[in-house]
Amino acid sequence: MITRRILLTATALSSLLPRHAPAQTATAPTAAAAPELLVEKKVFEFANYRTRGGANLATGRIGYQTAGTLNAAGDNAVLIEHFFTGNSHAFGRYAAGEAPGYWDAIIGPGKPIDTNRFFVVASDCLANLNARDARTTTTGPASVNPATGRPYGMDFPVVSIRDFVEVQKLLLESLGVKKLALVAGGSMGALQTVEWAAAYPDWVERAMPAIGTGEIDAWLLGWLDIWEAPIRMDPNWRNGDYYAQGRQPPLQGLTEALRIVTLHSRDRGWAREFGRRPAEGQDPTRRIGDRFAVEQWLEDAAAARARVSDANSFLYLTRANQLFLNEYDGTEAALSRSRARWLVLPSAKDRVFPVEYAQEMTDTLRRLNQPVEMVELKGPQGHLEGVVDIAQASDAIRAFLAR
Amino acid sequence: MITRRILLTATALSSLLPRHAPAQTATAPTAAAAPELLVEKKVFEFANYRTRGGANLATGRIGYQTAGTLNAAGDNAVLIEHFFTGNSHAFGRYAAGEAPGYWDAIIGPGKPIDTNRFFVVASDCLANLNARDARTTTTGPASVNPATGRPYGMDFPVVSIRDFVEVQKLLLESLGVKKLALVAGGSMGALQTVEWAAAYPDWVERAMPAIGTGEIDAWLLGWLDIWEAPIRMDPNWRNGDYYAQGRQPPLQGLTEALRIVTLHSRDRGWAREFGRRPAEGQDPTRRIGDRFAVEQWLEDAAAARARVSDANSFLYLTRANQLFLNEYDGTEAALSRSRARWLVLPSAKDRVFPVEYAQEMTDTLRRLNQPVEMVELKGPQGHLEGVVDIAQASDAIRAFLAR
After folding, report:
1. Alpha helices in B68-147 (DSSP H)
2. Per-residue pLDDT tens over the stretch B103-113
3. What is the mean pLDDT of each run of 10 residues along chain A (403 residues)?
């Protein structure tokens, strides 16, 4: 049973933690044949960034990685944006034998997003959740505020998906990029993709939002609030002021928040392996404190995740998601600005962004006479199909990039 | 804005609190034409009940209400079972001018479940959530343990959906009922309906589970655990020992738990009226502590609900749901015992029990050659369609009861 627990935890992490996470899929035959792509984590620094909400960040940093070579025109670039719990490790390995990035099945030499053709960039976002992970670089509430010499905590300014785009643009400009042949990402990465196409239509030739939505409506605003509420409930949270020596971070609340995200991101097909088994040695039919195996697994997986995450960053990320497209008068107004070709990749059994959301975005693009194709991802993993089994869209992506 | 807030809160309650709740629907024209049905809340007492988990309840009580007259054969009875946050007030009014029960649109003289033809009984369940509401009678963790003279708290035995059925059977027997022409209920009431058909096939002529499921699989076990987790996190919960004078109940945790249930039970169509408006005077684009209107509404609605609810009862109810059909070797084994005719009423946009669950139960019944019809409820309310707009199934129910 112990062996099993460890195995399951590794599986859990593979869906949440790209850096430890081989995106093992049965449908990625090229991965074995292709040479291993090695990538290096780099850091981009910026100064005096004015947030969309009007605050000033005197200094800031985000991590990124690249593969391929930028052409002289600077127009063969691809930008990959990560999901809520992810970071810039979307493809390649930091060292031979280490786990590849979460979309490694579709990014690399000869793969659908071909690094022999494209200069591919993936960056960490501001207020990245993995603030306590050595391989994530981010400026957020856990960073030191140069004005005080202490972590920002809740004094960090509100940032939006649009802010992520702005900082990515600074990074791309610093690399000489003039145009994006493709912007792509899953989940929160899909929101960044849409925001890019609306904000900088001249830059974006193709947009590929996976497991995304064209709007964060009131129902999704509410869910994001449900996700984060346990953090605010944890007495150790202390209004975000928990970084000082001798204080404990709100690990219980953060674990509970990640438990919700973990279950919400999956579907019943994934859960089937647990059945209705009790946790080892427990009897929920007789003892109210005893649990089922799936409950214990969620707890263990989320607790492991919480140890490299920052609770305040979680709050800033949910807010950034809530502010998706908030500078436009609705989805149609935003999408009408786009001049991209679109490949929309929802997951049929997505419980976070039900497939209707992507369908409606696709319908809106069609109504606007914009070139768009939608391909539904199938499988038992719910929302996570777009991360762990993106390989199933390989042919669609190749065709999209050939046009 | 204050007027609006009150209005919205009343709407929220109408979906959760049958006793304050006119189930207002555009599709219930008979409600105005029919004479008002008055009902009386009664109390059933039982002694020395042995739970399915093997514990003994020396004494117990549940509330109930009836309408219509039992025939001499005792076989024209109908049993109505309530949902997670409900109680026995399924139909009629306690006094002229008061709000009717939550399924009043389909139960009453001349209505689809016709009280001129049937003797209709609705009962509170054990460990009912509304333990602090004067019009709910229930034995649960907030009740006084006769062995100690103090509330049970977490010493109350685990009870299951099957236990609810057993106590209902005692009640029905005390009333002279020999057979049920119909067992029906929504959500948790649907689970009780299925459990009845499996446990006492000789009793159940027709079964009508609305917004239900044929199984609580690992994914749903996990969700029920997500629902209740905020209660366990609240420092005022104290392992369930909060009833003593001078102690505060875990209202914050209970409110958060009810916030999850409230949003999960609805769908994006319901949420549309809020749009992306901030709460009054707030600016979530600039202040991390500020909120959107939908978040504030969820908080207000859930807090109102929490004031008449008991946190420990919530924990016992989630466990009861988790133990659905736990005495059988799976759904097919349970359903194969049934000799009922079935009308299955899922909601197309149910986010609690996605429609696939009811579809699979229906498929299983068909495979078992059992007579079953499935009619999908449509509308913007998600799971709650089966409570607030059950009237749309009126014709299907009439036809079902005519067979």
Report:
1. none
2. 999 999 999 99
3. 31 38 42 75 98 97 98 98 98 96 98 98 98 96 97 98 98 98 98 98 98 98 98 98 96 98 97 96 98 98 98 98 98 98 98 98 98 97 97 98 94
Distance CA A231, CA A255 (A): 8
Domains of chain A: total: 1
What is the model's pLDDT at position B203? 98
| B319 vs A contacts (CB less than 8 Å) | 284, 288
All residues of chain A having their beta carbon less than 8 Å from the beta carbon of residue B295 are 221-222, 225
Measured between its terminal Cα atoms, the distance across chain B in Å is 51
Distance from CA of A68 to the nearest CA of B (A): 37
C-beta separation of B36 from B24 below 8 A: no
Residue B36: predicted pLDDT: 86
Phi, psi at residue B165, to the nearest 5°?
-60, -45
Mean pLDDT, to the nearest integer, of B237-244? 97
Task: Please report the sign of the dihedral spanned by the C-alpha atoms of residue B301, residue B307, residue B310, residue B311.
Answer: positive
Which token pair is A209? 């939002």
> Which amino acid belongs to residue B67?
A
Q: How far is CA A175 from the centre of its chain?
A: 23
With tokens 């991590």, the residue in question is A63
User: How many angstroms separate the CA atoms of A226 and A315, rounded?
Assistant: 11
pLDDT at B1: 28
Is the reported ipTM for this assembly greater than 0.85? yes
User: Using CA atoms, how far apart are residues B28 and B112, in angstroms rounded to an integer?
Assistant: 11
Query: What is the distance in angstroms between the Cα of B271 and the nearest Cα belonging to chain A?
Result: 5
Tell me the β-bridge partners of B107: B113
Other Cβ atoms closer than 10 A to B244: 10
Contact residues on chain B for A303, CB-CB shorter than 8 A: none
| Count of A-B CB contacts under 8 Å | 164
Contact B359, B367 (CB under 8 A): no
User: Within a 10 A sphere around the Cβ of B374, how many other Cβ atoms?
Assistant: 18
Q: Which amino acid is at B245?
A: Q
Q: What is the pLDDT of residues B306-338, one digit of tens each?
A: 999 999 999 999 999 999 999 999 999 999 999
Domain that holds residue A171: 2-402
pLDDT of residue A13: 39
List the CATH number of the domain containing B144.
3.40.50.1820
The SS3 call for residue B380 is: coil
Count CA atoms closer than 13 A to A400's CA, side-chain side: 29
- For strand A144-145 and strand A150-151, is the pairing parallel, antiparallel, or unpaired? antiparallel
> What pLDDT, on the 0 to 100 scale, is given for residue B34?
55
